[in-house]
Amino acid sequence: MSGEAKKAPYRVPIGPNHPALKEPVMFTFEMEGEVVKDVDFAPGQTHRGIEWMGMRRNPVQIVHLTDRICGICGVVHSLSFCLAVEQIAGIDVPERADYIRTIVHEFERIQSHLLWAGVAAHELGFDSLLHLTWRVREEAMDVIENLTGNRVNYGIVQVGGVRRDIVPEQHAAIEKCLATYEGLLDTLLSFFLDDRTIRMRCRDVGVLSHREALELCTVGPTARASGVNVDLRQDYPYAAYGDLDVKAVLPDRYLGETHGDVYDRIVVRLLEIGESCRIIRQCLSEMPAGPVTAEEKLVKLLATCKKATGEGIGRVEAPRGECLHYVRMEGKDSPASWKVKASSYSNLMSWIPMLRGSQIADIPIIVASIDPCLSCTDRVAIVQDSRRSILTKEDLHRLSVEKTRRLQG
Amino acid sequence: MKEGTLTPEEVMAHLSSRLSGGIRDSSIRRWEQGRKRVPHFTLWVDLDREFLKPAIMALMEIQFPHLSVIAGADLGDAIRLLYIFSVQYGSPKSEYMVTFGIELPKTDLTVPTISDLIPGAVFSEREKQEFFGIRVVGIPDGRRLFLPEDFPEGVFPWRKDETGVPEGMVRDLWKSKRPQNRPAPPVEEKRPGPEGEETAPAVPPAGGSAREGEK
User: Fold this and answer.
1) Which of A52, A172, A298, A362 is the 20 to 30 Å CA partner of B112?
2) 3-state secondary structure (DSSP) of residue B69
3) Of the candidates B178, B10, B22, the residue with the CA atom closest to the CA atom of residue B100
4) Which residues numbered 247-306 in A keep a CB inside 8 Å of some CB on B?
5) What 3-state DSSP class applies to A290?
6) H, E, C per residue of A317-357
């Protein structure tokens, strides 16, 4: 290698396909040896113009579009959109629908957090744990399928309520699933938190301070792991959460201290699975009887929406944090303006302080630690001045696994 | 400031006292759900443009506000920007959303950056620049965010006037084909077979992975 090629820092573009999750985002790392000096990223590799499409459709059609914004969060986008439209049109959702929305919402959180836990274990080279978490995740997927008819793109939420009721025959399946998770949670916690290797790879890695979390508008588990007490289910009640007693899961309540690192993000997500089970159980036992939608006839519903004028904001606590939809209606079929703010939108900026100063082998787990939701991976190029080499996702993953093995000695 | 949690009316009164004359219109909207009908509140405040930053500073006296997003709408002769904040997070059932709406006439589409107060705002400001064609004065990073590099200049997807996405751009999308002027891949593509016959295309297959149904 020539002397020039060795000159630091190196500019390392990673992407536009993603090293950790199968999500496209373009990273540029300034590297000095193994250490990340600075980082920049460019999202938008799969911008589909959904808002533009929505502004040419009516609210009932948009609900099905919102279902497809994300494959993991199938309910949060449709729920936020419906909350916004309901507030503009003054549609009062029946209480029973609020409870059904909450139950599906919480099952979604369970499966999303378990999926994330598996990805995190995989990035660390702990594939037996990946297989365990993804196997048990299937139980939540089965219940979601039982309740909504689909594993993804649930199509359960509609403006004014939900499209399917939960009947007593379904309670047994839900109960069985909850019992499984409640029995498994301690095991999962000890697998993740008492494991010496996971602790070595995650403790004080990818740290986001409390102040940075606030200044960068961070949301959800990423913010809570940095000690920011935010959870819309606790702070800003929607659906049935006003009736429940939800408390934000913060790492210091469990461990007595907050580091704001990858480890704390694991703690928060795992504990939230237990919290979700508790919420679902409470919802099932307190669910009021009655209709599940304010207006069954779609034509009437559309007529109501068409007359509506004004602005509304729907906001829910998605598995990854606050999801917000802003809708402006001007008495026409389609909204005059629609802005979707997904939870990862608020969390991407936090990558910069997290990744600065970290090692190249830690990039996959740090990037994954905020549970980003963008979309598919292919390869990574390393550019050292004029010399170029390719690091595939598999190479990056191998580097991460090798670091784990090195630490294990 | 009063200790403890404030009522929505107190938050509004605090804003009014700090922004005398700058508030064009304001309302507090209440929405109830669930069996116990526990309400949540949204404070809608329309401001003159120059009062945007003082308004955010007034919010900061209550708590460091969480900026959700800057939303917007094309009103015809003006662009309405809506800065959506929330305060009093962390206190159960008493967080309020506070939205600051400002109007930028199309003859002067400039707005000062708020990233000096809230560094994370630059993300949303970059998006508003490319989607509405406004200019955020003093923005520390004015690059595009979501739109691709080869997206035409002067086309702003959320505008409803002649600068919006032209009809042909959507209708004739099929004509665009695969871009021809892409830079060469960083290394030679692997070519299977000893004869070196070209089988795989130089570009990776678009979209889709084994797990696309999941994500």
Assistant:
1) A52
2) strand
3) B22
4) 247-248, 286, 288
5) coil
6) EECCEEEEEEEEEECCCCCCEEEEECHHHHHHHHHHHHHCC
Of A47, A237, A322, the CB nearest to B146: A47
User: Which pTM does this prediction carry?
Assistant: 0.86
Strand, coil or helix: A95: helix
Closest CA relative to residue A62, chosen from A46, A80, A45? A80
Measured CA to CA, the distance from residue A38 to residue A31 in angstroms comes to: 7
Amino acid at A371: D
Contact residues on chain A for B120, CB-CB shorter than 8 A: 215-218, 346, 349
Per-residue pLDDT reduced to its tens digit, A313-351: 999 999 999 999 999 999 999 999 999 998 888 888 898
- CB-CB under 8 Å, A42 with B214: no
- Three-class SS state of A113: helix
Confidence of residue B199 (pLDDT cuts 50, 70, 90): very low
Please enumerate, as own/partner, the contacts of B11-15 that have beta carbons within 8 Å and a separation of 24 or more. B11/B43, B11/B62, B11/B87, B11/B88, B11/B96, B11/B98, B12/B43, B12/B45, B14/B58, B14/B61, B14/B62, B15/B43, B15/B45, B15/B55, B15/B58, B15/B59, B15/B98
Give the CA-trace dihedral at A11, A15, A21, A24, to 10 degrees: 140
Give the Cβ contact number of residue A394 at 10 Å: 11
Task: Provide the pLDDT confidence category of residue B213 given band limits of 50, 70 and 90.
Answer: very low
Q: Which of A126, A116, A45 is nearest to A378 (CA)?
A: A45
The enclosing H or E element of A315 equals strand A309-318
Q: Give the closest residue to A292 by CA, choosing from A156, A175, A151, A171.
A: A156
* Touching B: A residues 69-88, CB under 8 Å: 70-72, 87
User: Could you give the angle at the alpha carbon of A357 between the alpha carbons of A351 and A362, nearest 5°?
Assistant: 70
Give ipTM to 2 decimals. Answer: 0.86
Measured in residues, chain B has a length of: 215
Q: What angle do CA A237, A241, A242 make, to 5 degrees?
A: 60
The interface residues of chain A toward chain B in range 11-70, judged by CB-CB distance below 8 A, are 21-23, 42-44, 46-47, 49, 51-52, 55, 70
